[in-house]
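Narrative summary of target 7.
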Amino acid sequence: MRPIASPGTQPPTGRPAASGSPLASPAYPGASADAPQALSGLRILLPRLRTPDALAEGLERAGATVVRAALTRTVPVPGQRGALEDLCRCLVTGEAAWLVLTSARTVEVLASCLFRQLEQPPHQLPSGGHSRDLPQRNLPTKVQVAAVGPATARSWRNLVGRPPDVVAEGSAQALLHHPVLAAGPGASGSSAGGSDNPDSSLPGDTPGNSPDVGRRVLLPASALASPVLAQGLRRAGWQVEQVEAYTTVPVAPQDLPAGLLASWQDGRVDAVVLTAPSVTRALLDLVGPPPPPTRTVAIGTTTAQAAREAGIIVDATAASPTPAGVLRAVKEAARHSAQAGGRTVGTADAVEERRRTLTGDDAMTPMTPTTTPTAPTAPAASRSTTGPAASTAPRPPAPDLLASRGVPAPVAPTVRPRRLRSTPAMRRLAREHTVDPASLMQPVFVREGVSQPQPVEAMPGVVQHTLDSLRREAVACARAGLGGVVLFGVPQERDEVGSQAWAEDGILNQAVAAVRAEVGDALVVCADTCLDEFTSHGHCGVLRQDGPRAGEVDNDATVPLYQAMAVSQAEAGAHMVSPSGMMDGQVAAVRAALDATGHDDVALLAYSAKYASAYFGPFREAVRSTLQGDRRTYQLDPANRREGLREAALDTAEAADMVMVKPAGPYLDVLAQVAATSPVPVAAYQVSGEYAMVEAAARNGWVERERVIAESLLGIVRAGADVVLTYWARQVAENPGWLAS
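Modeled conformation, tokenized:
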């Protein structure tokens, strides 16, 4: 770990170290926020490592001790390398009108891609990945470059040796108002004369360039980037090709500077600058929410909104994400704190922030609408008069209109249900259902033979864990207050009968033992009791080899294998086993095997109403399924509701401790009826397809991700689920604001 200055040492600048919370100290109110030492004695966390960093230098000149720590790291987006290579090829060959860059990180990712395109190894270039010696003759000379902010522009100049053609100050949305881009392709402003760089030229519809090239905009960006910029450019007529160049994930806890966590939790960090929504999420993951003495400054409105949605009070938001703009916001937060003497008696803005956090009634900040060119309005004299003339007479009030037609005035209602929706507190009081993190279970995949977690491309944010990362995930789930985890194994070797499923050293049994050893009884450790991940053919049981039914799953030959699997899972330490193969008699057989081997305390979660659903598709990638054919001869027909009720009743009669409906969202009618009649708790599995659809829609900006997640879970609970298995379980538990609103 990297050391940071401790409270008892002198900061590097020689200023006295922070003591308690100087933001609220009696000595501070007399200081001017505009004075050179306006931040004297304050300790400020700046969660990034950038050299040089004008913001860090400005904070230090204002008297602050700056603690710099990277909370996120950049990783490739699975499945996007080919698209990124194509983008760089188009950039090198000039097959586009514009390249739009929104961050310095994007430039860094492009650098290595360009090196490959130009066959120039990165190790031949200056350290840090920036090249002032990259041969300009090999770089695109016709593709114009637009950059957001001076840091992005500086990174691009360091890479290619010349500045971008357009540099927009502020947020990415500022590019939409630049005359060259706002006018769209082919407009008079979209020419060399409209560029900020006099040496540039626009491809347009010149010889050798097709019209599509003149309209084409290359937009590499983070996978977490807002879609607003791409949407605005498309509205202006550009053909935007957005590529997920990278994504950001939290760093490992051991990579944080030594002492940072203790200083943070003790309130010895006076302020933090949130530099991106992903940094906000990483901050919560790694060190937790800001304690009461710590002020929070957001670099822009998007980051401020993400912080508020995560339950963080934002004390100041920079009007511009430039170093000067952020520095002004930090000084403003310090001045308000000094004047108020603490967070609880703030300015009107601070009081409003507190109210929003307490009530969960944080409204989204409306975005400034992006205007698009419209056809000019014709003069009145030239308008068509072929249709009926529009009336210029004033319209009568609605009551007069109704009275003239003999409609009686409505009687004022005595019963007014809206009374119970009048305030956030009233809505909370009258709320019929809530989602409790203790009733959520996190499905987790663990893969044999890998040294690092492997992303599941069809399920963004989900990985196949190693045993080590699985242990960390289990600890995080326990700390978040989840009810349990459900473990799925992904073995290296498979055979016809799935023998690795009950092997003591099989990956699933190793995972059960590892999690149980790590968290004990803090979580319910549940193991998936099915053979599909372990068989070479991908079915949930053994196949008949001979006769007219060859190739069919043999029900009665499969059930003893489930018994062996359940007993081995219990011996590994599972609190609960979950037969999910939909074999007749599986629950009774597994219960008998557990009881016979002294595991009568191990609970049984029965996948009772498991339908042959197309929503399982992404899961099969997660377990590297080798399925041949389909499972319609043993999973339920999606058209049948009564059959699901019958299966749940049979499993209850066979001593299931809990029954399940799977999938959840498309089968809420089945879930409701099972819950209405079941004498045991009812679980519902929000499956991979439900997860993937929401994530895809959110990435395209079509839905509000957190609200849709919360609403979908609430719908499952409202239908009657006592327990919900969902891939969002830990995220929801760690972000209570999602459910509160």
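The chain has a mean pLDDT of 80.
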